Amino acid sequence: MRAGSRGRQRGVLQSPLSRCARRDAGVAPMTLSASVIVPVLNGASTIGDTLKGVLSQVGQPERYEVIVVDNGSADGTQDIVRQYPVRLLHCATPGASAVRNVGLNACAGDIYVNADADTLPARNWLKELLRPFSDPSTVLVGGRIISFMPKTGAERYIERAGLFRPENSALNPRFAFVNAGNLAVRREAALAIGGWDETLHASEDVDFSARLVRHSRCEIRYAENAILFHRNRTDDDDLIRQAAGYGRGAARIYRRFPEETGWNFMKAMRVRRMIVSRSVRPGWLRLRRLVSRVSEEELEFARYHRMWTRAFWGAFFETWRQEGRDA
Fold it and tell me: Which part of the chain is the Glycosyltransferase 2-like domain (predicted)?
């Protein structure tokens, strides 16, 4: 549920859960077993690099497995996966939540680790992500996600807007959660809450984190050195679809956690003013270029910010109204 405001992610969520987020204190790794789950759908162009990175980790635990869960790929993904020493499972139910649940129920590790198929792990990613679990009280850990070599306007926008910054997820002062793209959780704790909600096709990691924190009474840990490089959406159409999907997910989270989100009429009005402001900013910047210097980077960001904002909040308000009628 990534909101359309720069420096925020997945909406403006007010919550006491923010007290659950803290940085990893740097304790030493332990000997628990781990299962790395790689969900994938039509990831032929990236899955090979992801698996090479996952399988070449420095300081792997002694008991360690890699499971790829395919969600019905039709681009040769499965043939590529079979070239690597990993388990390949299949999930017929569409959606990331269903795919992760297949991996959760099939894996044998004490720690369930998720790495999306469009990411590249640093060599010590797994060791650093598992490090906080040497503390028996640690239940849920989020790693650091960095945009991988952004080249297109859409890729540059995702990086500059800060969608993957930790202060917008694991260190969010309003509503802390772990981005599922780089996540580790004790398997038994995840099973105890029923895994991921398969009715959610976006913001499922926000919901998962909130339910897990409440059930386990735990703190979210942030492992800054557990780095995954993420390939952002490359073209405008994909970016718009991503924004709309996050907007729909945000609306459902706002409905599901009303006390934490504190959504009300005044907040809705502020959002609408923000939408208007971002809609006119590209035109205003073009006028400014007639009398002063405005960088192409600033103008590009304003155009993409308008695009994202319209798609995100348009889908948000549509879903909000629909959810209200169905309640």
Answer: 35-190
